[in-house]
Design a protein that fits this description.
heterodimer; A: alpha+beta; Immunoglobulin-like; Cytochrome Bc1 Complex, Chain D, domain 2; 5-stranded mixed sheet; about 35% helix; B: mainly alpha; Cytochrome C Oxidase, Chain A; 19 helices
């Protein structure tokens, strides 16, 4: 079986709504092409036919209210059709079926976090089952983002302070992962050296993308179960490491996106404080107080980043990472990694 | 004619006082209340903004030619495209036609000596200058990377330079409002005897409709900026969700101004196209009142459709339904204009001189801009196309293919009247070809990029999009070359252009009835209008080229 191909104009159709969107698009496309050819055709024809010549005068302009009314009112028929059928499909695309699988989506500068119904978390990659409707319940932890998968023809803004929803039903299993783009501009860190897809993935608006894989429903269930189990203990490739927890913490440091703002180089404090010299140090805060960085301090800084703001970082807004996003076991792993960084 | 005779003719012409030579000091320019001089100063300032914004566009296209980092970082790129948008929208396209060509020609077309409030006119020019300086200071001193839309909460979490920038936009808005008040008062009170509303040139109708929209819409922008300040200064939650505000509310406010602003940009351009088509077809505009009223209709409809920028924003589906239906209606007055222009060409005596090439290009490009609005107004297709390059291409077809092309056409058309010099028609045709080919190469490709799913405001992209991005960038260079050639052509015309006759195109328009360049008070005597500006059937060939001024001089004597 080969995956459906896209056309010159449109990406492959991989969701149940896609053919409907494309039919409408192609209808409008041909209406537009015909209208354009008629308008420019008449224009060119008149320009040639009535070109200025010796002894030829322009005909005086007459008036015809009938003609005016015809071309004022007749486009209404087409417009009413476009509006009506566009709205009908839009309603279909807006109302998810009752039996849809609910996946929670969090957009944050510049990563996507997905939470499956069983609590399994994925970041910047998402697997979904073929032939099952998936409802997305989305929110942002910082600025506006927009969830856009061209192959599914869906797009919905992800807004801080409220939920937005969208749904899709994939029709084909994917060989190559599909791309989820962020379609609402969300910036870049100041002074970033590059920000390209190759150099720094998930570092700014244009690289805030995630890989979407469509699998069979059975494989979906198996994988999300596996993901949940794995989220509670260090991954297999940390087995045999002298400090498996710190090894896991190091992996989480990249996979959870901490790396985007926190370096492990003591000299680089951009945009958040470096992790190199945190553990066991006395931390001075914006409000003048200070505390020694212990387990509770780090836990608090992850769960409620604004509770204690390190001096000089008053303008930085780190999103909070809750229990769902970063379970307790993973916080322990990150603490172990920070300890290791001090050794 | 012998050289000696030519020299004598030139000397005599120089002795005729006109608005350029009756006073020559720098002070006489800086403190002038002459609408023509103010119009020229606007033209120079806005054209400089066009060149600066265009340079930013070329930086963007150069970076996007190949995937990956070429020579600027994502952060720099974001600032550059923000500057491109903000400069083009606020410093060039909104003020260029009303402030420049409108100021110069609206009073002349009305047979008036000046606008109703000449000092206010100068004041509004200086407000424009102050707003521009504020904007440039904000740009140079700060870090403005929000896009020209300044969406919250991204814009309010950045530093205060964004507030300075929105402050600049606020000040520029005042300049627009004052010009608009002036135009409305002038049209109502200063029309020459015999110039009834049904004889108003359609450029005046366009400028009038624009002025109404500016007065009604711009205050909303001011309110929005004020609320941004209040939020920042007193931490009162209006737009920022972390303070209890609603970021979608900002989008409602922003587009309540910025969508009507689109009509502020396009209506004067359509006005110019009417003048060009009538002049170069030697025929009255077909359906004059329908065309005039379609400008008013567009201006009013423009207030009811802002929500079509927000179909994916999280706004309710029912709001989306209403905005989709209302947006469809915009096609009606737009279509009325196109059809009436075609009907005007029918049976005309059409000359393809350079201004007319721009007018015909406008019809073709604005048609594409309008038709590609259909899949954006249709809800289900907009979901896929929103915030992609399809939208970028669509609004560039309307703003550049429409307004900028009309602006350039108007500049060519009125250049002899404004400067008293002709330009090289050959160079003008070459430049037009470059602009037309370059523009279409740049933006036709972007429709396909967008429908394929390439989001806008992206610093980097996947390899599949590369060939189209490369083509688009080459188109941008050709377009840039065309603009540079136009600048050179006009400079060359100023330095060694032939003296322009009074009415080089043989137009029946009122502005061609005065001397070239115009008298300091526009007309030696107030003209009495006995026919409409497009009544070619009431004029003989001789009258078109030479008749009217003699008539006026006779009255003077």
């Amino acid at each position: 079986m080969t995956a459906p191909k896209g056309t010159t104009q449109l990406p492959p159709q991989l969701s149940t709504i896609a053919p409907e969107v494309d039919d409408m698009y192609m209808f409008i496309y041909w209406v537009a092409v015909v209208s354009f050819l008629l308008i420019t055709g008449f224009m060119v024809y008149y320009v040639v036919k009535y070109r200025r010549r010796e002894g030829m005068k322009a005909e005086p302009t007459g008036h015809s209210t009938l003609i005016e009314l015809v071309w004022t009112l007749s486009p209404l028929i087409l417009l009413a059709y476009l509006f009506h059928s566009g709205f009908s499909s839009f309603v279909k695309a807006a109302v998810p079926p009752r039996d849809a699988i609910e996946i929670r989506v969090t957009g944050m500068q510049w990563s996507w976090v997905f939470e499956h119904p069983n609590g399994a978390i994925q970041q910047n990659e998402l697997i979904v089952p073929k032939g099952k409707p998936v409802k997305l319940i989305m929110s942002s932890s910082d600025v506006l983002h927009s969830f856009y998968i061209p192959a599914f023809r869906i797009k919905r803004d992800v807004v801080p302070g409220m939920y937005t929803t969208a749904w899709f039903e994939p029709t084909e299993e994917t060989q190559e992962p599909l791309t989820l783009f962020c379609a609402e501009y969300c910036g870049a860190p100041r002074g970033i050296s590059s920000g390209s897809l190759v150099d720094e993935p998930n570092s700014n608006h244009s690289t805030m993308i995630a890989a979407i894989t469509v699998v069979s429903p059975e494989e979906y269930d198996r994988t999300v179960h596996q993901l949940f189990i794995e989220s509670q203990k260090p991954p297999a490739d940390c087995d045999g490491n002298d400090d498996p927890m710190a090894c896991w913490g190091e992996k989480l440091y990249s996979s959870k996106g901490c790396v985007a703002c926190h370096s492990t180089n003591p000299a680089v404090n951009q945009p958040g404080p470096s992790w190199a010299l945190v553990w066991g140090e006395t931390r001075a805060f914006e409000d003048g107080s200070s505390v020694v960085a212990d387990e509770n301090y780090i836990l608090e800084s992850i769960r409620q980043p604004q509770a204690k703001i390190v001096k000089g970082f008053g303008n930085v807004n780190m999103p909070p990472y809750g229990e769902r996003n970063l379970p307790k076991a993973q916080v322990d792993a990150i603490i172990a990694y920070m300890k290791k960084l001090r050794q | 004619m012998s050289t000696a005779a030519e020299a004598t003719a030139a000397a005599t012409a120089d002795q005729v006082p006109n608005y350029l030579n009756h006073e020559r000091s720098i002070k006489s320019w800086l403190f002038t209340v002459d609408h023509k001089r103010i119009g020229l100063m606007y033209l120079v300032a806005t054209f400089a903004a066009l060149l600066l914004g265009g340079f930013m566009a070329l930086l963007v296209r150069t970076e996007l030619m190949l995937p990956g980092k070429q020579w600027m970082s994502a952060d720099t790129y974001n600032q550059v495209f923000t500057l491109h948008g903000a400069i083009m929208v606020f410093l060039f396209i909104i003020p260029a036609i009303p402030g420049g060509l409108g100021n110069f020609f609206l009073p002349i077309m009305l047979g008036a000596k000046d606008v109703a409030f000449p000092k206010l006119n100068l004041f509004s020019f200086y407000i424009y200058v102050i707003g521009s300086v504020l904007a440039i200071v904000a740009i140079l001193s700060g870090h403005i990377d929000t896009g020209w839309t300044f969406y919250t909460p991204y814009s309010t979490r950045a530093d205060n330079s964004v507030l300075w920038m929105t402050m600049a936009v606020f000040v520029l808005g005042f300049s627009s409002i004052l010009t608009a008040v002036n135009f409305i008062a002038t049209v109502h009170t200063m029309r020459a005897p015999g110039l009834t509303w049904k004889r108003l040139p359609l450029f005046v109708w366009g400028a009038y409709a624009t002025s109404v929209v500016q007065i009604l819409a711009t205050p909303v922008l001011a309110i929005t900026v004020l609320m941004l300040f209040v939020e920042k200064a007193f931490e009162i939650g209006i737009f920022d969700p972390s303070l209890g505000g609603d970021p979608i509310l900002f989008q409602h406010f922003f587009w309540f101004y910025s969508h009507p602003a689109v009509y502020i940009m396009i209506l004067p351009g359509m006005g110019i196209v009417n003048e060009l088509i009538a002049t170069f077809s030697r025929r009255a505009i077909f359906g004059y009142m329908f065309v005039a009223m379609s400008s008013i209709a567009l201006g009013l409809l423009g207030f009811l459709v802002w929500g079509h920028h927000m179909f994916t924003s999280g706004m309710s589906e029912y709001s989306a339904m209403v905005f989709s239906a209302l947006t469809m209606l915009v096609a009606i007055p737009s279509g009325v204009k196109i059809f009436n222009w075609l009907a005007t060409l029918y049976g005309g005596s059409i000359s393809l001189q350079s201004p007319m090439l721009y007018a015909l290009a406008f019809i073709a490009l604005f048609t594409i801009g309008g038709l590609t609005g259909l899949p954006l107004a249709t809800l289900i297709t907009d979901i896929h196309l929103h915030d992609t390059y399809f939208v970028v291409a669509h609004f560039h077809y309307v703003m550049v293919g429409g307004t900028v092309i009309a602006f350039l056409g108007g500049l060519h058309y009125w250049w002899p009247k404004m400067t008293g010099k002709m330009y090289s028609e050959t160079l003008a045709r070459i430049a037009f070809t470059l602009v037309f080919v370059g523009f279409n190469t740049t933006f036709l490709t972007q429709f396909v990029l967008g429908s394929q799913g390439m989001p806008r405001r992206y610093f980097d992209y996947q390899d599949q999009f590369q060939p189209l991005h490369m083509t688009s960038s080459f188109g941008a260079y050709i377009l840039g070359l065309g603009i540079v050639l136009i600048v050179w052509m006009f400079v060359r015309s100023l330095l060694k252009g032939e003296r322009a006759p009074e009415n080089p195109w043989g137009s029946a328009g009122f502005e061609w009835m005065t001397t070239t360049p115009p008298d300091p008070h526009n007309f030696p005597v107030t003209p009495v209008i006995e026919r409409g500006p497009y009544d070619y059937d009431l004029c003989t060939e001789e009258e078109l080229y030479t008749g009217f001024r003699k008539d006026l001089e006779a009255k003077k004597a």
